[in-house]
Amino acid sequence: KFTRQVIGQQVNVTEDEISEYYNSNISEFTVPQEYHIMEIQMATAELLAPVIEELRGGADFGALAAQHTIRAGMKATKGDLGFVQKSRYPRLWEAGAKVPLNKISDIVINDEGTYSVIKVVDVKQPTILPIDQVVSQVQARILDLKRSSATVDWLKQRRDKSSIEIFVDVL
Known about the structure:
The chain is α+β, with helices and mostly antiparallel strands. The chain has helices spanning 2-7, 15-24, 45-56, 61-68, 90-98, 131-161, and strands spanning 30-31, 34-42, 80-84, 108-109, 115-124, 127-128.
């Protein structure tokens, strides 16, 4: 609170600083690649193996997912997880990166430690968010950095102006 009210009053951010920060930290404003994944999750690999055989024989993925998946809420969506980011389901995302579009994966040990078969039905390539969509976010980050630096400087100035005397004979 002190930093914002006292020191923060002296801090401002220019358009050039916003542009420089954005360009220097573009990875912060990049939405990573996503895979639209359909999944059938089962408790064991042994239970999943015959389902994979049915899929490879041409069975409908959604119908089998509605019948067999144990992932909560996924029977109704026929196993459709939607677009998956790596942060949401890391193991499924990594498997999705290896499976050709509209093909059936081998058995995947998923993030819950159970077993899945997946099908990737679409891919979103990484996208960079335009600066006009993130300008307030960039400005807030720069303000935080400047306030932090200003606080350190303020404390250093106060420390340098202070003197501490230790009266050993009183101790």
